[in-house]
Amino acid sequence: MRVLIIDPDSARAALVVEGLAGVDPLEARHSTTFDEAEARAFAPDVVVVAAESPDRDTIDSLREAGQVNPRPVVMFVDRSEPGLAEEAVRAGVAAYVVDGLAPSRVRGVLEVALSRFQLMHQLRKDLEKAKADLASRKTVERAKALLMKERGLEEEAAYRLLRKLSMDTGRPLAAVAADLLAFAGVLKGDGQ
Amino acid sequence: MTPVSLGYVPLCDAAALIVGHAMGFFADEGLAVTLSREASWATIRDKLAVGALDGAHMLAPMVVAQSLGLGCEPTEILAPTALGRGGAALTISSRLSLGDDPAAGLLALVDRRREADASLLTFSVVFPYSIHNYLLRNWMCGAGVDPDHDVRITVAAPPRMAALLAGGAIEGFCAGEPWNAVAEEQAVGRVAVRIADLAPQALDKVFGVPKSWASRDPAALQAVLRALARAMAWAGDPANRESLAELLAEPEHLGASSTAIARGLKHIRFDGDIAAKDADWLLAQMVRWGQVDRAEKARVLGLFDPGAFGGSAPGA
Predict the structure, then answer these.
(1) What is the CATH number of domain B89-198?
(2) Would the CB atoms of A51 and B128 count as touching at under 8 Å?
C-alpha cells in the first residue's frame, strides 16, 4: 500500500510516516505541498492531508474530474464507525482513498494518522505549558526578590506575602507577581 | 455568553466575521465567538457537517452542493444572509499578451496552440461549486473557447494563485479579492474581466449554518445575524476603508499587503440582502454546468431564506 501525506508541518508528517511503518507493509511519502504530477507518478492508494494545507481543495476536486485524473480519489467516510471520520475532522486530518482499497486497511491508516496528529497536538500543548510555567516561575522569583529588597523580608516571608495577596484577590500567583513588578516599575518612573 | 464557533477562508469578503470579532459586535450580542481561519473550503464543509463549526463564510453554490450531498455527505445548510458580492475576477498571466480584447486574444491563442499541437492552457478556480468556476466558463463560452475541451481547469486555494501564476503552473485564475489585486501588485497577472462585467448581481459569499444548529438555537442565530449586519455596515463605510484594510492585512487574518487589500475592497459590496432571484441565478448556473438537476429547484430556493428561524433580511 502506498500512502501520500500532504502536511505543511513536516515534523508532524514525519511522525505519521513513522507511525505507519509499524502497521502494514507500505510505502509512505510526505510533502509540504501537493504536486499533481508527482502524486500521479507515486500513484498512492491513500492520500492523507492536513486541514492546514491550502492544497486540500485541489485534492478534493480531483474526484470531480474523473476523466482528467486517471487515479480518482474519493473522500473516506466510514459508515461502520461514525466516530472516526468525525474525530479526524476535529483533529484536522482528512483522508482520500483510491477506489478498490479494502476499508479495513484504510481505517488502519486513518487511525494511525489521527493518533499521531493528536500526539503532536498534545506535545505542542505540553511544550507551550512548560514555557508558560517557566515564565510565571521567573515572574514570581523576581517579585519575591523585589519584596525582599524593598521590604527587607526573608525569602520565606516574601513568598507568604505574595501567596496572601493571591488568595485575597482570588487571582493566580503569577498574575499578582506580574502586577507587583509592573507597579514597582511605574513607581520608579518606567514606562513614562 | 453563548459560545459560537465560526470559520472563514482568507478573503476580503470574510470581513463581516473578522470585523464582528475584532470590534466586539458579537460580544455586544452576548456571543462568545471563536473565529478560525481555514485553509480550504473542503475543511469548512467538513467542520460544519460534524458540528466543529456552527457557521461559516461560504461560497453560495457550496451551500447547494452540501445540502444536496454533491461531492460530500449531505448536510442541510441554510444561508440567511449574504456576506459580499463583486469580489470575483479573472486574472490572466502577464506572460500571455492577449491584446486589448482578452476574449478575442484567448481564442486566437487557443487556436494557435491547437495547430501547433501544444499543451492545453491551464486555469484555476477556487472550488468546483463557486461562481468563480461559472464566471470563467461563461466568459470562455462568450469568447468561443470550450472550457471543457480547449483548456484545462483545475482547483487551487486563492492565496496560492499569484505564486502559481508566477511559477508558470497556470495561465490564469478566477478568485476573489484581494488575490487578484495581489497578482497585479506582484506584476504577475492582469485582471481581464470582473464579475461586475458579466453578472453584477451574482451572489458570491454567504453566511452558512447547518439547519440543525439554526433550529436548535434560533436566538443565537439571530444574534449572529445582527452582529454580521452591523459589521457589514461598518465594513462598507468608506470612512473605515483604511482601518478595515489594516485589520484584514494582519498575518492571522489575510496576511496580504494592506494596499492590495484596499484595492480589492473597492470592488466589494457588503450587503446582506438575499432574495429568491439570487437562488434562481445560482440554480441556472449549476444546471448549465451539469452540477444540479433542475428538479431540485424548490429545495435549492428554500436554502436562501432570510426569514428562516424568525429572522428578517439583515439591513432591510
Answers:
(1) 3.40.190.10
(2) no
